[in-house]
Design goal:
By secondary structure, the protein is of the alpha+beta class. It folds into 3 domains: 114 residues; 149 residues, Butyryl-CoA Dehydrogenase, subunit A, domain 2 (Beta Barrel); 341 residues, Butyryl-CoA Dehydrogenase, subunit A, domain 3 (Up-down Bundle), CATH 1.20.140. The strands form 3 sheets. Strands 1, 2, 3, 5, 6 and 9 form a 6-stranded mixed β-sheet that branches. A hairpin with a 4-residue loop joins strand 2 and strand 3. Helix 7 packs across helix 11. The longest helix is centred in the middle third of the chain and has 34 residues. It binds flavin-adenine dinucleotide (FAD). Flavin-adenine dinucleotide binds next to strand 1, strand 4 and helix 15. It is found in: Peroxisome.
Amino acid sequence: MESGRASAGAMEAALNRLQKLALHLGSEAGFESSPLSAEPTAARLSEKHSQLRVEKLQAFLAGSYKVDKERIYAFFQNHPELQTPVEISKVEHRELAYKQMKALVQEGGLKPLTLLMTDPAKYYNVFEAIGTVDLSLSIKMGVQYSLWGGSVVNLGTQKHKDKYAVAIETLEAPGCFAMTELHHGSNVQGVQTTATYDIARQEFVINTPNEGATKWWIGNAACHGKFATVFARLKLPSAKSHIDEDMGVHAFIVPIRSLEDHKVLPGVEIRDCGYKVGLNGVDNGALRFRNVRIPRENLLNRFGDVAPDGTYSSPLPSASKRFAATLGELVGGRVGLAYGSVAVLKAASTIAIRYSSVRQQFGPPGEPEIAILDYQSQQLKLMPMLASSYAFYFAADYLVKRYAEMKMTHDEAIVADVHALSAGLKAHITAYTAKSLSVCREACGGHGYAAVNRFGALRNDHDIFLTFEGDNTVLLQQVAADLLKQYKEKFSGGALAVTWLYLRQQMATYTSQTNPVATHRGSAEHLRDPTFQLNAFRYRTATLLHTAALRLRKHSARLGSFQAWNRCLNHLLTLAESHIESVILAKFVESYKRCQDPEARSALKTLCDLYALERIWKNIGSFRNEDYVAPSKAKAIQRQVELLCYEVRGMSGQLVDAFGIPDSMLRAPIGLKTGQYAEYSSMIGW
Ligand SMILES: Cc1cc2nc3c(=O)[nH]c(=O)nc-3n(C[C@H](O)[C@H](O)[C@H](O)COP(=O)(O)OP(=O)(O)OC[C@H]3O[C@@H](n4cnc5c(N)ncnc54)[C@H](O)[C@@H]3O)c2cc1C
């Protein structure tokens, strides 16, 4: 009894405190009672963005690359024979992709390799436009220019540029990037192909020592490639032993087909990797080498060289540093995939949103049917996706600019930043886009399933973005490892990479952030304040980082570092995602603040609020577990997400128009600006 009375008293006191807190919060937000009672009316919301002008927003998004993209669109509009049809065989698709690439370069005057070397931001924008034509085309071109071309210019030295750059640009020298093997994909250091130096003839001898060392999935290999950058273990004769010394993985230029008659060269065997789930315009092949001799000059020798007498030299002190530098130079492909994935997301959300605002099903009794986009469920599927498209676009744009800066300066801190940022953004964006493609298909009902409406092809073609240029799960671990390294080494006052700076401040204050007033505040003003949003994202990351470090230390003592890492893997992946979301939000906030046009800025701010609050809502469990958000605040966040979806729905037409994808490129009849049903019917001959 006694204890019952005591707990009743405690309950009453707690209720009193809560009442006081509610009054405080209400008056702070200017409300009489609950924060939710200030719900804006439908009329107020639709009025709010009525002045939004598509061209202003589009100009802000496209920046200085609008003209470059429009040139690509115009080229394909003028060449309808080069558009990829809906139904096409593997053989025809491969030939068409090659023809499209040749036409762009030889007729359209595009110079992708020059752009990659001199103006990477423009290169990625041009490739975004090319991806809207056909993802097979952009990947085929990515293999030729980012991978084959990029490996030659970034891992080679001037003599390689002089010899190959022009031929790569003009497609006289189509080539491959042969890193992956049958037995080794993510673990590049495990590749088995060998390049043994023969001092007498000053040549490297390339061999596939076993079946598992077969180069696999190599783009451009099955049909069109004449050269390959082959990643192989460099073997040098040893003075001390009769066994060659293994100097680790290096890159070599290996001719695979004759320049004259395109026949496969002696010692090289090529097979077709066959029909794939998507991207069938790209000719992926498998390669084996039997005593293929190449001149000493064919070693791409920027980070390690072999003198005629077999002496090894390198500007870098260790094999691990050389390996890191080599892979570091290859991040360009990853940057391109992050950027290209945003483009796919923009196209898919454009189709789904346009169709959803035209499609009508059901309505109030006796009244006209309503657009499916007016259903709250449809808004909750598509509006956060639209907000994410914008969020990712600004983050990927930042990444591209950082990458360009890295290429200009070769600054070590920027190199490290771009490496982790590209890994994180590539993994996060491609995973989100892959899921969204299925959501879009479903949101468009049965008509979303018609191949002509493109979700199927986009989904199949994009799916592998999760795996190539680094498997997403592996990449996120690199982000987590980098965060932990910075946590360990530099929190005591050393310099942090600029993208990481927020963490030091957050780590210092994160334990003091759960004060009872802040955790209960639920007014729209507070929830839509970027300071609250950024603090919440960063608090989560800082907490995850701190606890990951503690757990790793605890488990390492008993299990060793490899097993301890595995024990904490899920935690580490969540940490990496959380950090990347913090970076994305910060870039979104910076971007809308930069926008000069007031209506466009206000629309972007609304999208950013939706992006932030929806992500907090999706992770509400972790905020509740830490008592960062009280139950009443969690409810207010959920309600705010619904309201923001409603608000964004009102301007969603303008928001997708601002992506500036012409109907002739989007092609899906249900995603056209006007006349969707008529165009759709005409596709089946009516
Ligand atoms: C269409 C296509 C085109 C390609 N083009 C090229 C090309 O032109 N040149 C080229 O060299 N390669 C190319 N690749 C190969 C591609 O880069 C590899 O597929 C990729 O690196 C992943 O390697 P993997 O397939 O061996 O997967 P694996 O490394 O075997 O991964 C399989 C699974 O294991 C998991 N896993 C692996 N390691 C870990 C770990 N440490 N922790 C947790 N989970 C882990 C992964 O998350 C994944 O789910 C291409 C592949 C495809 C399908």
